[in-house]
Amino acid sequence: MKALPLVIAILLVASPALGAVGPDAVSDQQSVFDTASPAQAQAQQVPNETIRVLDIPESNLVQATVESQHVDLGPSLDLAALRAGGQIQTGTSIERIESASDDSIRQQLIIDELSRIEQRAIALQSTQRTVIERFNQDQITARELLVELARIDAEARSLNERRVELRTLASNTPDFSIDSGRLAGLERELDTFTGPVRKHAVAVMTGGAEPTRFSVRTSETGVVLSVVADGKYIREAYRSDLRDRDQSTVMYEEALGIVADNYPTVYSSRSAQNGTNVISAGNSHRVRINYNGGQLSAYVDAGSGEVFKESQARPLRTVTSGTPKTEVKDGLSLTAYQTYPGGPLRIQLNETETDDPVDANVTIGLEASQESTLLGHTGTDGTIWTVSPSGPFTITVIKGNSAVVLTSSPTPIPGLETNTTDQSNSTPDEQLTATPEGPPGV
Question: Highest mean pLDDT range out of 23-32, 84-93, 413-422?
Fold first, then answer.
């Protein structure tokens, strides 16, 4: 493991009565802050492929597709009902606890409600595994998988809100406390089921965001999702095969080093002030890094020492285009800047004589398929972004009487050093931090 320069370690120990409640609360977890040097803060932008990602090895890949998602009344109503039901249940639970005739009954009601959330978290784990299995067996479509993952995300967030309320009730109950590790560990477990791509899928389905394309890649028990939205490339990955719940040997001090080894480019370009923090809870450590090109959250399993979950958000303006491949015909120059499966794919259209950008509709389809999907139009700058398919693909542009077709392929996945081979280790928070909070799950 590489040495970590300029690390300022702060061990924060809060009262056991405090639970994990949110980014503005006092932490009951262990936190490490790491400050980058001015030289590191001024690191130059680097090619796309050097930003490593948690992904699924090709030997473990079961399904890989790109799914167009749009507003959908059915899932939208279901998600609204789920949200409303969660709020009602939380309100009912709080009212019952606050109406308890004495403190002993109040304490027992809090414990009982916390146990219900823990049991529901276990059920969500089973639900997520089943949904992935059904998708892998072609029992549900990629669209249906996204809908189910969005529902799981919404319920997990609702359960975490209830956990926060219980933490507050516990802290306001005389002579009573809930183990802070239990509350924080539950938060991290619920965090397993949430992510920025799932959250964006909810926004698309409910009409809060424009229709877009989602990359979906699965193994037997893992899932990787990515999307280009709101001027950003966003991805999330979860691999349960990299977890070892039977032991806990990796300390929070080591987690930063593990992430530094796996994401060297991100780590070396971290922000000069409060660029990194480590939050430990339950049997995992979350390492969040703000760097020149975006934000990374990597989750290190305390048993296996592996990064088992990841989320990244990178503004497109910071994404360095990959290797270009160009096709010229009928006065049009079409270029695809190749990237890895599910990575940020930039498509550029220009006039061949003047090099002026051209606004035209763009379609994309797998080379082996006869079907194509309309991406949209390139706009006044001649550029459109999307997520790359996992296999060879064809891009087609028609502008008036001119047409140009380009065939391209994704590049190799810049996988993590320790996640590039098959592994089978699995068994089946609050933070005081100066790091600015990103979108939930990022």
Answer: 84-93
Using an 8 Å Cβ cutoff, are 342 and 390 in contact? yes
How far apart are the C-alpha atoms of 202 and 58, rounded to whole Å?
29
pLDDT value for 198: 93
Mean pLDDT, range 149-172, rounded to an integer? 92
Please choose, from the candidates 391, 390, 388, the residue with its C-alpha nearest in 3D space to the C-alpha of residue 337.
388
Q: Which domain holds residue 345?
A: 324-408
In a domain, 76, yes or no: no
- Sequence-distant (6+) residues with CB within 8 A of 9 are 32, 33, 253
Q: Calculate the dihedral angle through the C-alpha atoms of 194, 197, 199, 205, rounding to the nearest 10 degrees.
A: -130
Q: Over the stretch 80-134, which tens digit does the pLDDT of each residue have?
A: 777 777 788 878 888 888 888 888 899 999 999 999 999 999 999 999 999 999 9
- Tokens found for residue 354: 């003047």
CA–CA distance, 318 with 312 (Å, rounded to integer): 13
Q: pTM here?
A: 0.83
* Angle, alpha carbons 24-25-31 (nearest 5°): 95
The region, left, alpha or beta by phi > 0 then psi within -120 to 50, assigned to residue 382 is: left
Residue 384 counted as domain residue = yes
Residues in the chain: 442
Hunting for tokens 């032991």 — which residue is that? 247
Q: Find, among 438, 43, 417, the residue nearest to 266 by Cα.
A: 43
Phi, psi for residue 216 in degrees, rounded to 5 = -130, 125
Q: How many CA atoms lie within 13 A of 286 on its CB side?
A: 24
- Output the domain CATH number for residue 328: 2.60.40.10
Sequence letter at residue 346: R
- Tally of domains in the chain: 1
Distances (CA, A) of 383 to 36, 43, 68, 161, 209: 34, 26, 19, 40, 20
